[in-house]
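Duplicate of #3305? Posting structure anyway:
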């Protein structure tokens, strides 16, 4: 995957409440990054929409603190930077591209089960906003079925799902240069090549999915993602573009968005 990216920091902690929380605390004090923060144990990890995340020993819990140039919309595209870098790191760790797929908006699947997730949060000073890109990967263990909420996607870990054992520190050494590669492409070439690469790795592209929004659901064929990264569905009423939603595959309530979308 290449050497550790030049100019990017790396700090490993035995224990943190949350790597994203630590990144945002640093942003308030003026830290600019970019720096990766890795915690071997988290005591107050969280996922999307404030959901709890079970931080299990041997798994990756890391955040990249950065101050990206450009608009908030451009900053949001770092979820695709992170997803593509994570996919590449998993390929480097296993050599098995066929196992992995990207689930919009922020998850990585292993053989159709939830392996990893990404959580973007902004903070810092108003004059210099910062971005924390949190990534959680079930490297060694996954939550038990009883620990995930009803309708959640079944979790899996890399060890049981791919037969690969790798320490969090070693996986971060694969992840950081991969993320740096896609970050450089975004800044130099724009979103188009990332969009194409993401679609080539997308789970259930062309199939029926259900988008869950507050108070309603929209079912349709997953056609693409647009130039802003929004999900595009073809529904009986026409094409719909959704900048945010939770996705279920098909119409099965057993395949919804997992509550442990990221561990930070």
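Output from current build:
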């Amino acid at each position: 995957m290449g050497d550790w990216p030049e100019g990017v920091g790396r700090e490993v902690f035995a224990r943190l409440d949350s790597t994203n929380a630590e990144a945002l605390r640093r942003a308030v004090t003026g830290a600019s990054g970019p720096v990766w923060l890795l915690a071997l144990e988290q005591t107050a990890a969280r996922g999307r929409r404030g959901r709890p995340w079970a931080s299990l020993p041997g798994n990756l819990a890391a955040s990249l603190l950065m101050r990206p140039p450009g608009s908030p919309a451009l900053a949001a595209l770092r979820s695709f930077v992170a997803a593509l870098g994570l996919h590449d790191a998993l390929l480097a760790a296993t050599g098995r591209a066929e196992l992995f797929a990207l689930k919009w908006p922020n998850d990585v699947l292993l053989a159709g089960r939830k392996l990893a997730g990404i959580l973007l949060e902004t903070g810092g000073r108003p004059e210099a906003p910062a971005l924390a890109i949190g990534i959680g990967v079930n490297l060694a263990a996954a939550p038990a079925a009883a620990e995930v909420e009803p309708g959640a996607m079944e979790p899996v870990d890399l060890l049981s799902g791919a037969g690969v054992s790798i320490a969090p520190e070693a996986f971060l050494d694969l992840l950081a240069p991969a993320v740096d590669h896609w970050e450089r492409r975004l800044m130099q070439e724009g979103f188009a090549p990332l969009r194409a690469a993401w679609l080539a790795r997308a789970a259930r592209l062309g199939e029926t999915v259900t988008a869950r929004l507050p108070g309603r659901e929209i079912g349709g064929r997953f056609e693409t993602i647009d130039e802003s990264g929004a999900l595009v569905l073809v529904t009986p009423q026409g094409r719909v573009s959704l900048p945010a939603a939770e996705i279920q595959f098909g119409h099965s309530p057993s395949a919804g968005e997992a509550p442990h979308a990221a561990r930070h």
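Confirmed duplicate; merging threads. Helices lie at 19-28, 72-76, 78-94, 158-162, 168-189, 192-200. Residues 251-264 have pLDDT under 50 and may be disordered.
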